[in-house]
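Q: Hi! Curious about what 3-oxoacyl-[acyl-carrier-protein] reductase FabG looks like structurally. Here's the sequence.
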Amino acid sequence: MNLGLSGRRAAVAAASSGLGLAAARALAAEGARVAICGRDRERLGAAVRSLGDGARGVIADVGTPEGATAFVREAQDALGGVDVLVTNAGGPPPGGFATTPLDAYHAALDLNLMSTVAMCRAAVPAMQERGWGRVVAITSITVRQPIPTMILSNTARAGATGFLKTLALEVAKDGVTVNSLLPGFHATERLRTLRGGDWDKVAGEIPAGRVGDPADFGSFVAFLCSEQARFVTGSAIPVDGGEYAGLL
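A: Let's find out. The predicted structure is below.
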């Protein structure tokens, strides 16, 4: 299937590894010109090389609104504009209500809420002017099914989901779609940090019986950016092997 992404310009945040890199690879495979960011120059360089000719790397920390805005601006300069924005950032540290200090919430909100707001503010107005754009936010299944030991992620990403839904309603008439994907357990360094490297044990908690493949996740990101997905907007879609247990 031709997704209609050849020649489109995509900015993918926090994409030197993990789900961000998987999304960037899927977009590049569809012919999009891709700019990615990361904090580690060496790892970012390796990721850019893996994306092939025409990919661009930007040293940026999207953990602050200023860093998030700077990434989009540099991607726009490098690519001549941005048609596709994939927002993404690392996760805040684990903890519950009793163990999480008040000031930790500020950093988590900057990382997983305000960075998304800042990237959208930098990229979406130009999409509206052109009459075409795609925003896909990588958030977490904790938006639908909060995890007791992840109170910072539960809180910040739920706020981001509210922002994205509101934005989607406002810009739909301009040909811009805004969606989010809610990953469950995928084989990434983030999961290794949180749960260790015993994928078989983690897989036992997932109805599909296996840990998610980042490449499959990336393909879903590319589809949401496609011409075929132009009538999908305002959605928050679990990608979790059936882990989410709710009806709605």
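A: A fun detail: Residues 9-239 form a domain with the Rossmann fold fold (CATH 3.40.50.720).
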